[in-house]
Amino acid sequence: MSDPIFRRSDGVWLNEPERWTARGDGLEMVTDRATDFWRETHYGFSRDSGHFLGFRTAEAFTAELRVQGDFRALYDQAGIMVRIDAQRWVKAGIEFSDGRAMLGSVLTDGRSDWATAPYGHDAGDFWMRATVTNGVLRLQVSADGKLWPLVRLAPFAKADSYLVGPMACTPERAGLKVVFSAFRLTPPLGKDLHDLG
């Protein structure tokens, strides 16, 4: 059974949505209008208006999270975020783009990048895992919470601690309902890069 982390008092909201509720080990939120996380690249603007509930970590950790949502409008997105500040963060999960729900990640160090790929499983119900240790970020995705293929491996700014937790945005609308559950925050798993467990 998961720790009911969403009912803990140490979660810090960035842009708390108007509608959200925590029950048991789950968090349900509905996005506000025109919410986003992005910095500069291509579009020339910086937005830090997305919804994020962050929990403080140590300097190394693994976090995983189940995400259930109905992604249907351009840039609808939800997943996991790891954040130091407004200039240094990563978000990863499903984002609706090019007419379909895509697996996506945005890594930001002053400016944002964006990587997408088709997701071959049910985009409305998936798990994300983020591990940070020794200045390295490892992102993994799972369709069942058991098999965890690699999404991305990247350098990531070192810090004494991070904020990590669920993230959701709808740059083009309001009203994406997302349910987050099975959130676990542990010391880094320390598994081999190609260990899918």
Shape by Cα distribution: globular
DSSP strand tally:
17
Structural class: mainly beta
Runs in which pLDDT lies below 50 for 5 or more consecutive residues are: none
Discrete helix count = 0
**If you consult CATH, what is the topology?**
Jelly Rolls
Overall helicity: under 10%
Tell me the strand percentage band.
over 45%
Overall residue-averaged pLDDT value:
94
SSE pattern, N- to C-terminal: EEEEEEEEEEEEEEEEE
Pfam families: DUF1349
InterPro entries: ConA-like_dom_sf, DUF1349, UCP022704
Protein name: DUF1349 domain-containing protein
Organism: Bradyrhizobium cytisi
Describe this entry's structure for a reader:
The chain contains no helices and 17 strands. It has 197 residues and is an all-beta fold. The chain has a single domain (5-183), classed as Jelly Rolls, CATH 2.60.120.200. The strands form three sheets. Strands 1, 6, 8, 9, 10, 11, 12 and 16 form an eight-stranded antiparallel β-sheet that branches. 40% of the residues are buried.
